[in-house]
């Protein structure tokens, strides 16, 4: 078959011959007419060939366009692009009074309403039958009997506000174990945030000393020795050190030197202690540690302003800062840019192994994205009219990553939006004081939510249990990971039903965690009492809750620490 290229050559050749014949006038009329006829025939053949080629090209172009549109509107269900916002594919359609937030990814359509779940979203019906109980028993030795003279314990805490809080609590218990006088703990001023605040600038030091006076003798500074200042012996105790560990490792040195300073003091005391010592922990955490008046006043003002906006509100502790994500080793679909940025930050911690993002996320170790938190809350019944206070640092991805959450919950607030710069001026240069303001709002909110299981999330979960089991939502990260991954292959009704099922045992209800499970600061079971004769849980629900809680504890890292100060992680791991 003659090719198109060959026909073109033949056509060009005939054109030349025709011109030559016209110039020389040597060709007869019959020959000329014959050439013209042949020339017209060739043009017809070429036209038909071109038409076939153009039809073939058009068909190929149509297929490519169809594939491109399919990849945009129907991404593969295995895609792990969980970080990049999808707000470009969402539109609001109003039908009468009902608004739907349409997500055109498969069948997944997110309603603006949380729906009617037949229960109170803002409290637990059985919570009034529980109360915090941390008073010492009659057998507990008081400070005037137990404390020995000339035996001083100093503490250097480590990390940010809530990590340091764990150290302060355990310092009191350690002093009691060692029969020593406690010197007011020294706060960490060298961590990531470089906060220069001392203990008395964040906590009410006089109240702290007074409230614990029957338990441990506490003084503000180490007295001089022989009229001169003296330097105590410094020791680093192992993590999770139990009372025997202190008695064999610290007490002999204390007896010789009379003053010992324990450095990098956080999580240096065993999670499991006898009941009397656990109750002492609760007295320190829930009663003795009180913020200074300026912090309390500003914190209460923030709470009042939130309550003026709505009868109920959610406080969300959103840990999605670059440092947090880099340390976790998680990947959120941001491509080479994200890998390069977070990889550079991760290099600060030389002892961290190479990350396996898929494994980390599969094991439930990754913080939820802002979008995932929003979807979880909507599935649990919170509609778009709910007001949300967000306690957060600088979110990775900025407004772009916050956009899906704000789309789901447009009543979006923070301390910067409900207070003026002038009101926050005395706190804004100190990360610990700013964190204290968020702590107060998260404590006073109707529902507390965390996208992680860091120190602040644990502390507040335990505190809210102690003071009446106020709802505190933790994410069942291992289960939710799979659900978020495949959500484009299911309807909203199926998705929301599964979220509610997976979150049983993660909502802050009474008895949802077994005694002794998790960190004591998160589950202070020794300090929780129940009214006698009250049946607080249907048996089936209680078993489901305990089962879920056990699974949750099996996937969590018991030594997870706030990333703000993880530049010291090498020292933690070397213990």
Write out key terms for the chains shown.
single chain, 575 residues, alpha/beta, Rossmann fold, five-stranded parallel sheet, 23 helices, 10% strand, disordered C terminus
Describe the protein's architecture and organization:
Keywords: Carbohydrate metabolism, Fucose metabolism, Glycosyltransferase, Membrane, Transferase, Transmembrane, Transmembrane helix. InterPro entries: FucosylTrfase_pln, GDP-Fuc_O-FucTrfase. This is O-fucosyltransferase family protein. It holds the Pfam family O-FucT. Belongs to the glycosyltransferase GT106 family. The chain has 575 residues and is α/β, with parallel strands linked by helices. Among the domains are: 199 residues, Rossmann fold; 145 residues, Rossmann fold, CATH 3.40.50.11340. Helices cover 47% and strands 10% of the residues. The chain has 23 helices and 15 strands. The strands form 4 sheets. A 5-stranded parallel beta sheet has the order 7-6-5-9-8, covered by helices on one side. Helix 1 runs antiparallel to helix 2, helix 4 crosses helix 9 and helix 14 runs parallel beside helix 15. The longest helix is centred in the first third of the chain and has 45 residues. It is globular and about 110 Å long. The chain starts with a helix and ends with a helix. The C terminus is likely disordered.
């Amino acid at each position: 078959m003659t090719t198109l290229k060959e026909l073109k050559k033949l056509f060009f050749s005939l054109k030349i011959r025709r011109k030559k014949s016209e110039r020389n006038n040597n060709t007869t009329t019959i020959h000329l007419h014959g050439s013209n006829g042949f020339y017209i025939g060739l043009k017809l053949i070429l036209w038909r060939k071109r038409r076939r080629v153009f039809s073939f090209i058009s068909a190929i172009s149509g297929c490519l366009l169809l594939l491109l549109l399919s990849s945009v509107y129907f991404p593969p269900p295995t895609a792990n692009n969980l970080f990049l916002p999808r707000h470009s594919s969402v539109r609001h359609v109003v039908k009468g009074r009902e608004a739907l937030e349409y997500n055109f990814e498969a069948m997944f359509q997110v309603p603006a309403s949380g729906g009617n779940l037949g229960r109170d979203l803002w409290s637990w019906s059985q919570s009034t039958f529980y109360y915090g109980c941390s008073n010492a028993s009659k057998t507990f030795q008081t400070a005037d009997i137990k404390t020995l003279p000339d035996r001083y314990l100093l503490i250097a805490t480590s990390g940010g506000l809530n990590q340091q809080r764990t150290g302060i609590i355990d310092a009191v218990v350690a002093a009691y174990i060692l029969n020593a006088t406690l010197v007011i703990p020294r706060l960490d001023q060298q961590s990531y945030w470089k906060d220069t605040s001392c203990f008395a600038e964040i906590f009410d030091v006089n109240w702290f000393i007074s409230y614990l006076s029957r338990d441990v003798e506490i003084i503000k500074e180490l007295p001089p020795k022989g009229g001169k200042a003296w330097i105590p012996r410094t020791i680093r105790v192992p993590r999770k050190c139990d009372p025997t560990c202190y008695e064999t490792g610290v007490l002999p040195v204390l007896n010789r030197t009379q003053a010992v300073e324990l450095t990098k003091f956080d999580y240096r005391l065993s999670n499991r202690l006898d009941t009397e010592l656990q109750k002492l922990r609760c007295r320190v955490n829930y009663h003795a540690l009180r913020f200074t008046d300026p912090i309390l006043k500003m914190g209460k003002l923030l709470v009042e302003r939130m309550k003026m906006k709505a009868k109920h509100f959610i406080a969300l502790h959103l840990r999605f800062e670059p440092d947090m994500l880099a340390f976790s080793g998680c990947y959120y679909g941001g491509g080479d840019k994200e890998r390069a940025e977070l990889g550079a930050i991760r290099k600060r911690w030389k002892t961290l192994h190479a990350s396996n993002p898929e494994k980390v996320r599969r094991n439930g170790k990754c913080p939820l994205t802002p979008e995932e938190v929003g979807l979880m809350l909507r599935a649990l019944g919170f509609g778009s009219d709910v007001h949300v206070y967000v306690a957060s640092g600088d979110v990775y991805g900025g407004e772009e990553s916050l956009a899906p959450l704000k789309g789901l919950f447009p009543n979006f607030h923070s301390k910067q939006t409900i207070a003026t710069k002038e009101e926050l001026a005395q706190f804004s240069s100190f990360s610990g004081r700013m964190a204290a303001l968020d702590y107060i709002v998260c404590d006073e909110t109707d529902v507390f939510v965390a996208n992680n299981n860091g120190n602040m999330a644990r502390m507040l979960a335990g505190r809210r249990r102690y003071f009446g089991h106020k709802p505190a939502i933790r994410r069942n990260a291992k289960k939710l990971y799979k659900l978020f991954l495949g959500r484009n292959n299911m309807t909203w009704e199926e998705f929301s039903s599964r979220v509610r099922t997976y979150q049983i045992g993660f909502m802050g209800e009474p008895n949802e965690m077994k005694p002794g499970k998790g960190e004591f600061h998160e589950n202070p079971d020794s300090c929780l009492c129940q009214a006698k004769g009250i049946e607080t849980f249907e048996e089936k629900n209680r078993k489901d809750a305990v089962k879920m809680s056990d699974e949750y504890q099996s996937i969590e890292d018991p030594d997870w620490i706030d990333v703000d100060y993880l530049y010291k992680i090498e020292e933690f791991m070397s213990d």
